[in-house]
Amino acid sequence: MQFKSVLTTLILALSVTACSSVNKIVYRIDVPQGNYLQAETVAQVKTGMTAQQVQYLLGTPVLIDPYSNQTWYYVFLQQKAYETPEQHTLVVNFDQRGIVTNVDLDKPLPNSGQAEVNNTIINGPSAPSKSWWKFW
Length: 136
Known about the structure:
Structural class: alpha+beta
CATH class of the domain at 25-112: Alpha Beta
Largest sheet: 5 strands, antiparallel
Mean pLDDT: 81
Number of helices: 3
Distance between the termini: 85 Å
Low-confidence stretches: none
Radius of gyration: 29 Å
CATH architecture of the domain at 25-112: 2-Layer Sandwich
């Protein structure tokens, strides 16, 4: 009788741990957080732009320096499934008049992810045009 209870407990313990030993089978979605930064829009931010122009391009910053309103921080955090999260920080500095003096990106952004599509049409040998009523 004791052997059956030990065997049942052992089988139950192994079956419960077997479910958790399989790793990375559960689907995890990609989680973007913060300001979605694209390389094309960040490249458009130049010195001499106004604060309104920068906000039109990039949106509202995640953080404005609390001690002086001349520094805006745009933070983009992307975590894809089980990969390590990747963070990009864009710092935009303004002068007293609200004109961009410096734009600093901590590391390069990945491309937009859109592969170049070759739209070349390849024409093969043309088939003779036949209609269905000329079949007979």
